[in-house]
Please model this.
Amino acid sequence: MPKLEELITFQVVAESGSYATAARLLGRDTSIISRRITSLESRLGARLITRTSRSMQVTDVGARYLERLTIILTELDEANREASGRSAVA
Model:
């Protein structure tokens, strides 16, 4: 099962369109971001992002994964807020 940090990293990379931007947003080195994406792809057995020295692009599989992942992470965030008493719903 993928680690939460890998999932969040993939989401930020995919949405920002850049490893460097994701690294800056997450407060990590670009090498850590790259390792997390490689690890996630290895765990899943699927290529989520294609990258060259000049660009990166989310694959079709990666785009579908991102759609579902975004829903899951949003739900997790809501569950965490609710459990800690910070939810607008009482």
